[in-house]
Amino acid sequence: MSFVLTEEQTLLRDSARVFLAEKAPVVELRRLRDTHDATGFSRSLWQSFVEMGFTGMLVPEAHGGLGLGHVEVGVVMQEIGRNLTASPFFASSVVAVSAIVHSASPAQQASLLPPLARGERIATLAVDETSKHRPDQIALRATRTERGWQLSGQKTFVLDGHVADWLIVAARTTGTPGDEQGIALFLVARATPGVEVERVVMVDTHHTARIRFDKVTLDADALLGDTKDGAVAMRAALDAGRVAAAAEMLGLADEVFARTLAQLKERKQFERRIGEFQALQHRAAMLYCDIELARAAVMFASSQLDARSNDAWTAVAVAKARAGSSVNRAVQEGVQMYGGMGMTDELDLGLFMKRARLLQELFGDAAFHADRLALLRQY
Amino acid sequence: MPTSSDLETFRQQTRAWLEANCPAAMRKPIPTEDDLCWGGRNWTFASEAQRQWLERMAARGWTVPTWPRNYGGGGLSADEATVLAQEMRALGCRPPLASFGIWMLGPALLKFGTEAQKREFLPKIASGAIRWCQGYSEPNAGSDLASLQTRAEDRGDHYIVNGQKIWTSYADKADWIFCLVRSESEAKKHTGISFVLFDMASPGVTTKPILLISGKSPFCETFFDNVRVEKKNLVGTPGGGWEVAKYLLTHEREMISAIGDRALPKPLGQEAAELVGTDEDGRLADPLLRAQIAEFEVDEAAFRLMLERLGELSKARQAHPAYSSVLKYYGAELNKRRHELLISAGGSDALEWESERSSHGAAARAWLRTKGNSIEGGTSEIQLNVIARRILDLPGS
């Protein structure tokens, strides 16, 4: 079954729903924004994530994690989307853990994964170098030295890069930008000399970093795994992130749609509830169809990742593209149907719209993934 | 509950049986709706293979795999039926029988029919002996179906039916009709309707095909002039036909939505690339068309998953009863998009109407036919109304 949650997954959803609605609702994001919090999330919330077991979801049991899958991650991400919860869960517990699991040697996994599962360390994947996501265009160079490696180049849009203890840097060891191969992943402590981090607050109040690597000298064991499978591991980590982001967009769309329906049922104009107007009813119904399409695509892609299916690439592209266009429609319609109030900062709709836009862009927008689908299908 | 090893055994037996019994000619894709086997009293089999395939499948009850065995069905569980469908798809087996009896009337009879009606009608649907048509729409009752005016006058043991239906699919080829009639003239709009069955060979029934923009005539006008209908052929209660009609419509919607999922031999983008040509990197040479097709294929893939999800939700008894409207709406719109893109890819070739190379305008005719997808079985606008009211619980005006 790919489309119906098991009993355990339903329990997880229910507990994540109660926990996040209580501990990290939308007002919490407002507080972070209005106090200009430099961390961008609450450390005590992060500790609660550890206690809930979220930080170790994708970490194998042998390394102190729960050994759960992407369906379970998706369940939590949907609740994060409903509440606009800011935390390093996505960057560290999903994407970075996936990158390590798919690339690192057994010894590296044994030393890196337990502190990530315990939430004592935060890691993040640094891929993008340009404002559009083009993972095959990586130019940041890794050259061999006597001691190990030297990195030079820059990265942008690195999620939580300003607080991450470890940066997992996708660097080119051979070839030129545009080559799919020749990519390797390196573990770089943020405090390493030559690493220059600029904190960037994004439109949705979540924090990222622009990072410059100026002749950063690394030991040989900074290379995760070997240079051969770096591109494969990077893609696996990106796909885990894409599906998780799609799940967050789905949860966000569900929440915005629920609020929009409430408005249609309450707001009166011309002595009628505006939900009686067919023009609005039809738009709401079309939006519902779009969200249902996204739901099927997200659930399927999560289960394909868990099944390690050869066809998972297609499913991931469909989920990221479809969730992106569905959530976009949901936030547009939300603001429009709330009218002038939808434009105010007092209502939360703008916060949802900002987060939705960032998630659409993250790890490839709908056009990127439609193009990817076309390439996979050879046309 | 069958165990997974039981299902695996069933799968192996099914595959072996299909390999031994499905004629090679019945393992090729179906070019058009006309190449399906529709059965019925006047059916002429297109080939010996078509006849054999129907007879062999009907003998096992596999034209209607989940219906009970004593009504001509296969008595399969939902899981077994899924396995059968998967194995048929894997071998490329055509459906042995296309039938409004199977897709629409059968489920309604199983729910609302008397024991005598089930025994009389279901086995002949399953074997393809009787071909059915649907008498719903009237000239003044389209989207507002409940305003229908065809009248049934109570004459004790029978009714006398007078009136006119329109858009009756294949009325000129069908043997029997399931028909909505107004039997209680004083009652309110929805409560005066009855659901009756009668023979299209009855005195007083005439049909007239309607020429469509595709140049084909799959629909008819159907006229009833003092047609005698036996009361034993009333399904449900007198005046209770609307409930039967609505239940049947959900099945019709699922049937039509399946066209959004009609598997082409290859992805639309590949087909278009063959028609338009490719650049040096192998990409479809028209970048804007390629982008539109890629966007379409994302939605098509998601729609297919939505159908699969409904299957699982139904098994888990979590499906919303009005969900068929979501599938009907989206499937119809998707199929229209698909054929618009196919015409764009085909260019002027796709607009040839009378020529050998175009198979007499096959692409253009198929494109025009799809314009009916968002009209038949309840328009897209009606589906959106149903979603708004029944699923989203928006207030009525």
Task: Give the secondary structure arrangement, pairings included.
The complex is a heterodimer of chains A (379) and B (397).
Chain A: H1 7-23, H2 26-34, H3 43-52, H4 70-83, H5 89-103, H6 106-117, E1 123-126, E2 141-144, E3 148-159, E4 166-172, E5 183-189, E6 195-201, E7 207-219, H7 230-266, E8 268-269, E9 272-273, H8 278-306, H9 312-338, H10 349-361, H11 366-376
Chain B: H1 4-21, H2 48-60, H3 78-91, H4 100-112, H5 115-127, E1 132-135, E2 151-154, E3 158-169, E4 176-182, E5 193-199, E6 205-210, E7 219-230, E8 234-235, H6 241-257, H7 268-276, H8 287-315, H9 323-346, H10 362-370, H11 380-391
Parallel strand pairs in B: 1-4
Antiparallel strand pairs in B: 2-3, 3-7, 4-5, 5-8, 6-7
Structure commentary:
- By secondary structure, chain A is α+β, with helices and mostly antiparallel strands.
- Chain A has helices at 7-23, 26-34, 43-52, 70-83, 89-103, 106-117, 230-266, 278-306, 312-338, 349-361, 366-376, and strands at residues 123-126, 141-144, 148-159, 166-172, 183-189, 195-201, 207-219, 268-269, 272-273.
- Chain A folds into three domains: 7-117, Butyryl-Coa Dehydrogenase, subunit A, domain 1 (Orthogonal Bundle); 123-230, Butyryl-CoA Dehydrogenase, subunit A, domain 2 (Beta Barrel), CATH 2.40.110.10; 234-376, Butyryl-CoA Dehydrogenase, subunit A, domain 3.
- Chain A contains eleven helices and nine strands.
- Chain A has a four-stranded antiparallel sheet with strand order 2-3-7-6, with no helix packed on it. A three-stranded mixed sheet of chain A has the order 1-4-5, with helices on one face.
- In chain A, a hairpin with a 3-residue loop joins β2 (141-144) and β3.
- With 397 residues, chain B is α+β, with helices and mostly antiparallel strands.
- Chain B contains eleven helices and eight strands.
- In chain B, α4 (100-112) packs antiparallel against α5.
- The longest helix of chain B is centred in the last third of the chain and has 29 residues, at 287-315.
- The mean pLDDT of chain B is 92.
- The chains are: A alpha+beta (379), B alpha+beta (397).
- The interface between A and B is large, with 44 and 45 residues.
